[in-house]
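Many introductory courses stop at the sequence. We go one step further.
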Amino acid sequence: MDIQDTIRNQVTSNHVVLYMKGTPQFPQCGFSANAVSILQRCGVNEFFSVDVLADPDIRQGIKEFANWPTIPQLYVDGEFIGGSDIMVELFQSGELQGMLKKN
């Protein structure tokens, strides 16, 4: 299984996936900390997270997978939502809360 297959499997087999620097308990950058905070404010306390600092192949592979150059990256039900700035916009508009509800 190549790295793109691994990523595809992660994002399609979990409801909410956050690729971030660090862990939800110990984020290693402000943008990742903000992303975790937004998810928690939406009531999502459990989600699949991937620490890109722990795996250089994932760190590069996720940028190619979404064609998005920055981390964190949020996926909901296999769909790329965006990074920290987009999460803020969607949260403020109320859209993110709707996306995160399980069907």
